[in-house]
Specification:
The complex is a heterodimer of chains A (308) and B (513).
Chain A: H1 2-29, H2 34-38, H3 45-55, H4 61-73, H5 87-122, H6 127-141, H7 144-158, H8 171-200, H9 203-210, H10 215-252, H11 258-267, H12 271-299, H13 301-307
Helix pairs in contact in A: 1-12, 5-6, 5-8, 5-10, 5-12, 6-8, 7-8, 8-10, 10-11, 10-12, 11-12, 12-13
Chain B: H1 18-31, E1 46-53, H2 70-79, E2 84-86, E3 92-94, E4 97-102, E5 107-112, H3 126-137, E6 152-157, E7 160-164, H4 172-176, H5 184-188, E8 203-208, E9 212-217, E10 228-235, H6 239-247, E11 253-254, H7 259-265, E12 271-274, E13 280-286, H8 295-304, H9 307-313, H10 344-353, E14 360-366, H11 373-385, E15 389-395, H12 398-404, E16 410-416, H13 423-426, H14 431-438, H15 443-454, H16 457-473, E17 478-482, E18 487-490, E19 493-494, E20 511-512
Parallel strand pairs in B: 1-10, 1-11, 14-15
Antiparallel strand pairs in B: 2-3, 4-5, 5-7, 6-7, 8-9, 9-10, 11-18, 12-18, 13-16, 13-17, 19-20
Helix pairs in contact in B: 8-10, 15-16
Classes of the chains: A mainly alpha (308), B alpha+beta (513).
Chain lengths: 308, 513
């Protein structure tokens, strides 16, 4: 098991490094000069050249890559062109907000999925099943920017119950978390519902009924545990989506998270900041998936023995 | 050469004489009593106002001379003072200088206000003024374009200085009303600019967290504490999120709004609109190293595009259409002839006279940098097609557009005047800037530009008109329309007033309920 973990960590490091180098090269080969973007249209060539010297973009690409990699390996992701601050500091300011938003959305979606998905599987012809179907359909077809905009107009502008955007506290998380949760609930619902139906038809479930265990205990202790393995896989994918997908929610709600920071950085061709955000989010994604793999082993003893 | 004393005199384009003397004398009396930023009567500030902007500061580096940007200028206009200052009408009055005299076409003498301190408590000295201006004269900084190369300050006494230009510099007063006075210690140690802005202005820099720039009132301001305690400039990238933030009360003032935003608040008594705009225009930048280097072709394009129609439809009548190389809201603007009115027959005739009588293909890039840019570009392409000019339009992401615009024959952009003087925009068509932006070089125009820059008050109008006329006659670029900046203001902000500038230098007079 220990060797398995070490091997996975090394694989993760190689993946993140490959992503970092790829992003570095793609940024520099794509259209857009950070110096030209920083300067107004009427700036003199002299001013633009000075910006290039300040940013280091006048140096050969290989030299820039060497500087970037040697810094990254020491934990230094460089200095932002736009903010003139260490990239690490900028990310550490924005990332917790995005994690709060993504975490809130994930918790919300899981809570909803577990309750509604389980009940829908248990009572396939009940209102719970209808609710699950409707939500899955609506959530799948309505994009985040649309649901978000509607919620802002209703709850913030018209009713004034919640802030329309920004980050002023817990209340700022409510609307964006709901909007994001709505987008990931459909897949979770479908997977859990399908998985629960399969598990509930197993013989050991009938045996549990025969032993006189309560339906609640059977559903939420025995069945859900075994039905959650596919849901874990979906959660792993959702984490990746959340890290990248919340950018839409952050723009709609003017939420100052990592997504909005990435958008500003991309528009400004702030190479160090884009690279830093990419490395951090890639690392988070890889680590979360590693944890999910480990969780598989924790939940399913067959997998634990196999890996040992 | 007219001597202008204590500049709250008549506008530069009026004739001197008894009226000018009386105005000047009145200004002398008033200058030390009523600074243009005369502020809170009881010395206390209260409340907060939040601006919603569509862009963040260009950098977290608060040297106002290092660049031009909306938020940078908003912050600089409140944190710093200039020697002179603009009022709501664009007239120049006292600032850190209480009196001034234009002694010659190259020398302005100024008397510095005493008892002024920077936000860190250090006193403003003549050395700070000298450092702030000399660095622009030395060149290399973005805002060096507002002065003549080599301009420098001579210190005569702790409160008496002379600003000496190596060449005739008739626009000196506008420049002195724009240039921010910084502490010499920060100029000598530029790293300090990364820690925040520091000046003598009515507001102190508090913080910038990537979204919000926060300023707080300077209770010790020489003009009296501003009425509003806290000012925030908030960046909200999405247009819908911005207007929602205004409607829900999260922001109080939206800057430079679109015609769609204006329609959202039409008839809503909770908001009002301020149209005091910096002079700005929407232009279609031509590259003169291609087909649009041909004069007849450029004039043909001018006749082929229905500018009034575009302004009325796409822009919903929010932007004026001018007949000059200057925006209509600019000082010294005059409507010129010919009008280059929309006339397809004239356009076709000019194409026939051009070097491309059988037509030509132009490359155009489009993006979302300019309001309604994609729609306007489609109309331009269709209009030119009607006169035998094929336009290949390529849509680019904003960053790519801003980088590569001068590799395409034609594309839209906006030009704004930061110091309320037409010299600012007329300067785009000379030297390295003209080459870089337009691939344009015209010795005849360079002479006209130099003449208006040097012209004293009594001849300035004629000189500016001559320069603008040359650009207009030659249709050096397509002057599509003004870009009128509209500001939507929550009614809790009382008495919102602006100078015709990018910044908010009169915000100290504004209060919130």
């Amino acid at each position: 098991m220990r060797n398995y973990v070490i091997r996975r960590i090394l694989q993760a490091a190689i993946i993140v490094l490959a992503i970092a180098v790829t992003v570095f090269l793609v940024l520099r080969l794509s259209a857009g000069d950070p110096a030209r973007i920083r300067a107004p249209v009427f700036a003199s060539p002299e001013v633009i050249e000075q910006y290039r010297r300040d940013f280091g973009t006048d140096r050969p690409i290989i030299e820039q890559l060497g500087t970037f990699l040697s810094g990254a390996l020491q934990g230094d992701l460089g200095t932002s062109f736009r903010y003139q601050e260490p990239v690490t500091d900028l990310i550490m300011t924005a990332l917790p907000r995005t994690l709060a938003l993504a975490g809130s959305a994930l918790l919300l979606s899981l809570a909803f999925t577990i309750v509604v998905g389980s009940l829908a599987a248990l009572r396939p012809r009940s209102g719970w099943a209808v609710l699950a179907t409707v939500l899955a359909t609506v959530g799948q077809s309505a994009p985040v920017f649309w649901t978000g905009a509607l919620m802002v107009i209703l709850f913030a502008v018209n009713l004034g119950w919640l802030p329309s955007g920004g980050f002023t506290g817990v209340s700022s998380l409510v609307l964006p978390a709901i909007a994001v949760a709505l987008s990931i609930v459909p897949t979770q619902l479908r997977v859990l519902r399908s998985s629960m139906r399969g598990v509930l038809s197993e013989e050991y479930i009938r045996t549990a009924h025969a032993f006189g265990l309560s339906e609640r205990r059977i559903t939420y202790f025995y069945a859900l545990k075994n039905a959650s393995l596919p849901l874990l896989t979906v959660i792993g994918v959702d984490v990746g989506y959340l890290l990248g997908g919340v950018i839409v929610a952050e723009v709609v709600f003017a939420f100052p998270g990592i997504g909005e920071l990435a958008l500003v950085a991309l528009n400004a061709r702030d190479y160090p900041l884009v690279q830093g955000i990419t490395i951090v989010t890639a690392a988070i994604f890889v680590i979360v998936n590693l944890l999910i793999d480990l969780a598989y082993a924790a939940i399913d003893p067959r997998i634990r023995m196999e890996r040992s | 050469m007219e001597h202008i004393v204590n500049g709250r005199a008549a506008p530069a384009w009026t004739t001197p004489g008894r009226r000018g003397f009386l105005i000047g004398a009145t200004a002398l009396g008033l200058s030390t009593v009523m600074p243009l930023r005369a502020l809170a009567q009881d010395g206390t500030s209260s409340g907060a106002v939040v601006f919603g902007n569509a862009e963040p500061p260009t950098a977290n580096y608060w040297d106002p001379a290092a660049g031009f940007g909306l938020v940078d200028e908003q912050v600089a206009s409140l944190v710093h003072d200039s020697l002179l200052a603009f009022d709501e009408a664009g007239e120049i009055g006292p600032g850190l200088a209480t009196a001034w005299e234009v002694k010659s076409e190259t020398v302005v003498a100024l008397t510095l206000r005493e008892g002024v301190t920077f936000h860190d408590g250090s006193s403003l000295t003549a050395e700070d003024v000298k450092a702030s201006i000399d660095r622009l004269g030395a060149g290399g900084l973005a805002q060096a374009m507002v002065v003549t190369p080599g301009i420098a300050v001579t210190i005569l006494s702790p409160t008496e200085i002379e600003v000496v230009s190596p060449a005739a510099f008739g626009v000196i007063l506008s420049s002195l009303a724009f240039i921010k006075i910084l502490p010499k210690t920060n100029i000598d140690n530029p790293d300090n600019f990364g820690a925040g802005a520091m000046g003598t202005g009515p507001y102190k820099f508090v913080s910038y967290d990537g979204s919000d720039v926060v300023l707080e009132a300077n209770p010790d301001y020489w003009g009296g504490a501003p009425k509003i305690q806290s000012v925030t400039f908030r960046y909200i990238e999405d247009a819908q999120a911005r207007i929602n933030a205004l409607l829900s009360g999260q922001v109080d003032i939206l800057t430079r709004v679109s015609s769609e935003d204006l329609s959202r608040v039409e008839g809503n008594a909770d908001f009002y609109v301020n149209n005091q705009t910096p002079p700005a225009q929407i232009v279609a930048i031509y590259q003169h190293n291609g087909p649009l280097g041909d004069l007849k072709l450029r004039q043909a394009v001018a006749h082929a595009i229905d500018r009034e129609g575009i302004a009325a439809s796409i822009m919903r009548g929010t932007n004026a259409v001018g007949f000059s190389a200057l925006p209509t809201s600019s000082s010294f603007y005059e409507a010129l002839e010919p009008k280059f009115e929309f006339d397809l027959d004239k356009a076709r005739a000019l194409v026939a006279e051009s070097a491309y009588p059988d037509g030509v293909t132009l490359r155009m890039s489009t993006s979302t940098l300019v309001p309604n840019q994609i729609e306007i570009d489609q109309i331009i392409a269709a209009s030119l097609q009607a006169i035998g000019i094929t336009v290949e339009v390529e849509r680019l992401e904003v960053g790519a557009f801003r980088t590569s615009y001068n590799t395409y024959d034609i594309n839209l952009n906006t030009l704004a005047i930061f110091n309320y003087d037409p010299d600012f925009v007329l300067g785009f068509y000379v030297g390295d800037i003209a080459q870089a932006v337009f691939h344009y070089s015209d010795p005849a125009y360079e002479a006209l530009h130099a003449a208006q820059r040097a012209a004293p008050a009594e001849t300035r109008q004629a000189a500016v008109t001559a320069a603008a006329q040359h650009l207009w006659d030659n249709q050096v670029t397509l002057y599509l329309s003004d870009e009128t900046w509209h500001f939507i203001v929550n009614k809790r902000v009382e008495g919102y007033v602006r100078a015709p500038l990018i910044g908010e230098n009169l915000l100290g007079q504004v209060s919130v309920s």
